[in-house]
Amino acid sequence: MHTLTAITDRITFVMLVVSIWSGRKKLRGEDLALDGRLPPEDLISLGSKRVCDPEALRVFHRLKKAAERICLQKGTRFMGGFAVEQSAAAAIAEELAAIKHLFDAEITQFRANYDQALDAWIAALPDRHWEAPIRRAIEPADIVGRRFGFRFDLVSITPAPNAGTLGEDIAALGNGVFDEVAQWARELKDSFASKPTLNRRALGTFRRIREKMDCLSFVDSRIQPVVDAIDQWFARVPATGQINGAVLTEGFALALLLSDPERMALFGAGAIEVLAAAADEAMEVTAQSAMAAVEQPAAPDDPFADIVADFDLATTTTSPQTQTETQTPVTPPPAATSDWFF
């Protein structure tokens, strides 16, 4: 219980409750065919029919996703909500309050425009035969408006004397963090693949990952070694200019580590050879990309070259310096020589 409370005492539990009207109604038998016509696929699906333009609902889904991103920046999914470190809770609550303000404003706007937007959507349907089934299912704006809602609750966790399987849920938090980080990190691999330098914008993703893991390092001892590896690499990244050579290869290895939950878990548990293996993989991929660039086939001979040569192009002169061009072979980036991986 002491280990359990040592973690729960530092957690604030955030519960998001976001309701969004589906814009659909149950499909009725008389809707299935009208004068021998079948409704179009974009009007019916899975036993329901649309009674609202889906575009009008997208803003609510975007705001819900934005709220979830806020919770995940410094938190992790937990028991249907999010577990965040107590010191981050106040800032998260402030950001969620701003999202709620926008969400409520969109509800007001949606209700005000409901009838007019509905008429415009129905008028734009390719076949007006479906107007009657849609209008039969329409509900008033006031009723529809009550189908939307945005609430968020922040509470502390105090385990009961018999906490059930809460200990198992807490023990799984670290694996959840690794899974979420891996989703963010997968885009990093594309920043390195077949590129001689790293775009500095990719550093922002590394920083977001580092911040999230640092905030949650108290939930699992395997997280801190990964944070330390990120810090060690950042210490080697030049403050300005290009990121290439050994630092590029090390960053690629770090991206491979962060994009794989199992690798992170093993490395955090003390298997430092996991990062060394990722470094070998990064160097191999980088070398293969460099060799592929060298082995690009030469451009085919110009079939019109001989014809052009028969003409006296008096306006064209060729300097001796440009008659012969020597292609400089592409040299693979140097392998990491520091002890960063070991």
The strands making up the biggest β-sheet line up spatially as: 5-6-1-7
Strand percentage: 5-15%
Low-confidence stretches: 298-338
The number of domains is 2
> Assembly type of the shown chains?
single chain
Helix/strand-derived category reads: alpha+beta
Please provide the ordered H/E string of secondary-structure elements.
Answer: HEEEEHEEHHHEHHHHHHHHH
Number of helices: 14
**Morphology call:** globular
**What is the helix content?**
40-55%
Report the span from N to C terminus. 36 Å
Mean pLDDT: 83
Calculate Rg over CA atoms. Answer: 30 Å
Short overview:
This protein is of the alpha+beta class and 342 residues long.
Supply the key terms:
342 residues, 2 domains, four-stranded antiparallel sheet, 14 helices, 53% helix, 10% strand
